[in-house]
Task: structure prediction
Amino acid sequence: MYLLRRFLDLVLPSSCAYCRSPIEDSAVPFFCSTCWNDFSVLPGPFCPSCGRPFDSSEALVHSPTHECYACRLKPPYFDQALSVGYFEGSLREAIHQFKYRPCRALGKPLGTWMCGNLRVLTSIDIIMPVPLHRSRLRQRGFNQALLLADPLSVACNIALCYDNLWRVRSTRPQVELSGEDRIKNVAGAFSLQRPQDVSGLSVLLIDDVFTTGATLNECAGILKNAGAVSVTVLTLARAF
Result:
């Protein structure tokens, strides 16, 4: 009976992964309704390029196109980066459960939450998730960026392409690195199987968390070099 209870708690947990209270009638797996509804949505204003929130609520009032210092010092390849929530609290735990448990069942509800809390999105021709290397994909069993992208593709009726942008070189997990090491880690790690397919298109690039933006910027550079008109980055959460 003890082993049976442990197995059932692993597959169908009775307590919330974040607050440990009973899940009861929650509509999502592994989280109670209170913690799920407590995700922190990023307020404005933001840098119009990288999406970093400005400290002052008055920022951009008189200069709507003013970029943060980092973007003025070294402009990213992507045209705009959008993040929906803060990588903290119950949202951080949900992402960890999703990726590292791993809990594939959280993909659709997290993607739906991201889609429902997304700010205005400019014209997009195609959605592309950041790919995993085949070794990591075998280990995890799914690409979390693809599962997050699917609800948005359906809701906005925008084509979802997951077999063009490839990660051709296995890299160390970015979470183990910081700063310049992240940039070096992903340099040359991506390629396009059909570069002509993105020429002249506005691409929406999706991933789970924006930390330094190194991975997303590397992918955006590949897309821009292939002729993409614009690359907008969208992530479920932003870390600081």
Summary: Residues 1-35 form one domain. The radius of gyration is 19 Å.
